[in-house]
Amino acid sequence: TLRQHVSLVALPDAGYRPRELDPRVGYFGIAFRDYSQPIQQPLVRQWASRHRIPRAGGIDTSSAIVYYIDRGIPEPVRTATVEGAKFWEQAFAQAGLPGMFRVELLPEGADPMDARYNVVQWENRHERGWSIGGAMGDPRTGELVKAMARMDSHRARTDYNLYAGLAGADASAADTAFVLARVRQVTAHEIGHTLGLAHNYIASTYERGSVMDYPPPRVTARPDGTLDLSQAYDVGPGEYDVWAIRWGYGVFPATTEADSLRAIVEEGLRKGFLYLSDADARPEFASDPRTNLWDDRATAMDFLRNQAAVRRIALAGFGERNIRPGQPLALLQERFAPVYFMHRFALNSASKAVGGMEYSNPLRGDGQVATRPVPAAQQREALALLVGALAPRELAIPDTVAALLVPNAAAVTPPEELFGSRTRPAFDELGAARTLAQMVVDLVLQRDRAARLVSFAHRAPDALTLGEVVDSLVAATWRRAPAESSRDGRKLAAVRRTAARAVADRLMLLAADTLAAPEVRALADLRIAELQRTANANAAAATGMRAERDAERAHWQSIARDFEHWLTERTLPPLTTALVAPPGDPF
User: Fold this and answer.
1) CB neighbours (10 Å) of residue 367?
2) Of 49-63, 130-144, 478-492, which range is least confident?
3) At a CB cut-off of 8 Å and minimum separation 6, what does 556 contact?
């Protein structure tokens, strides 16, 4: 069944005064070319997207912004949705606008698509997906007319999988509390978009500064080796949110508005309220390690250390306890994926420090630093942590876990949530290790990141260089495995080989990348020529039991042949790509 609702709505009257966007405060807006602008001013103008708040000698709460919650949301999610929506009641009150934002249940019989209602609507989904906050506005001014936050039902299930993977699936009120805390937070986030606010992915650097950031659950490792999830999600608006509402929704006399807005921004800058968004955080070439999706510490390195420690504990304790009695063991693989890749977003954050550059959105005279290469000591700290993630024991999957990961023949779990496999129907342990290793190596040797290392090398005498980065990766992964007779030793040797192959393939891809800087390609070529000799020497020196000796020789000879092919033919040999990791977001 398809049902269409059409609203014919008169555009708002002329009583709304547009507000010029400020790049230091995160609002969406409309952009247009104003051909009446003086030649000294930009042709393109931008106005912030906002709801109207009339004032007549004081706050008129009869004209408050009202958001209506879909009555079809099942309990207890509906109550949590109402509570999350009311974060903005707090934000408006703290911004000096008490009563100007209000939350109610949608009137009985009202259509959520009716343009007269700003609605938080429930949408059933059978797979992982995003919740979305959007609004329709007056194309002439940017004034918001109808807001709709569409909350997907599957987010709660994704979040529960993460909880069960970390804390176990035994019946407990804590799992419901964890999920409902996430519902509150994501509700506030999507409503923030409908109020005009953009993502602010640097707000985690000032302690959960905004609901417009993407928060992972805060999980910490206790000294006794257990995990603490008691502060998983924050409650209420962040300081940045209150400040942004003051800037966007404060009403001032026309003669003093510009000065008032300038004063608000200056106050926020003094408090350290920074704003960087999607274009700064999402691209694979992003350079500012402070600006990330799904991070939860003041620095990328602190976050990676925390997530790695949490992951080790969760891996060590993973087993049948992570599903409930009577559930299929096949469900364990879906629960295991977010645990094994627990630190994936922290790895991404830390990689931005390598060849990294911090920056802001400054205006002339506001005192902000425009750009600053990440200090060499911090870059090396990040590199050491990233290289550490390639250690065989960090990549390996415990035998006790692998033995439980049965095939998904009964389709218990959607296949996109599972690890890929070249050993079907068996779980592919080495394939998983290669996927994670390739993830780390590709982050470190991303083409723009490598070019920045070359470009920034002259700026400081102790600068981290691209050659040093490659050498660090090689030192961590290319050590020839000693002859091992133990099962554990043979397994770690096999895992180490997957990481060595990840480095080899990335070097060849970088050397062949016509979009990479010529200096980057040249350095990759140099290291390939040097490492070809190392690979041949490792193959000749392989010892141990016949099976292990054959595996070592075959591994190193294969790399040596691929390197020779590239160096002589200048075309890439046929490479076996790493398996695609299960999705990490949204959760």
Assistant:
1) 9
2) 49-63
3) 480, 535, 536, 538, 539, 542
